[in-house]
Amino acid sequence: MRGANELGVFDQYMIPVYGPFKINGVISFGFPKVINPNDQVTAQKLIKIAVSHHYEMVQHFGEKRSDVDLSHRENEVLTWIARGKSTSDIATILGISVSSVDTYTRRIFEKMGVHDRVSAAMSGVVEGLIKPK
Q1: Which helix (H) or strand (E) holds 1?
Q2: Nearest in space to 94 (alpha carbons), one of 107, 110, 106, 81
Q3: 99: which of 12, 52, 66, 117 lies 20 to 30 Å off by Cα?
């Protein structure tokens, strides 16, 4: 801490960050004064900043580690699933039939080794197949 104090850092806040591509880490913030540990507004802002910057750094410097190879259309369907759209909504958005969306969904589940929409969405984010809004 003495070295940090010599640089003008007197309080630190460390935030664990997770994914995409299963790349996890910790982002630290240093402050020139003591931060109130009960200040939830500042804590939430720091968490949002850390998660956002981690995602951007991994996207910029990381390389795709997913072994899941989705087609362009499968990736579109997965993205809409992750955004909470129903099968009929996805069909309307993409201009395809409901049965086509069902077929793409089954293929996605098979390729990703999952059995439901929530698992597919979560896995898609962790694997870096889906970009957040």
Answers
A1: none
A2: 81
A3: 66
List the CATH code of the domain at 72-126.
1.10.10.10
Task: Give strand ranges (E) for 1-133.
Answer: 11-17, 25-31
Instruction: Give me the amino acid identity at 82.
Output: A
Of residues 71, 89, 92, the one with CA closest to residue 81: 89
CA distances from 116 to 76, 79, 111 (A): 17, 14, 12
Please give the pLDDT value at position 131: 66
Q: Which two tokens stand for residue 17?
A: 């960050």
Least confident of 4-8, 18-22, 112-116: 18-22
Q: What's the pTM value of the predicted model, to 2 decimals?
A: 0.56
Beta carbons of 38 and 61 less than 8 angstroms apart? no
pLDDT digits (tens, 9 = 90+) for 82-93: 999 999 999 999
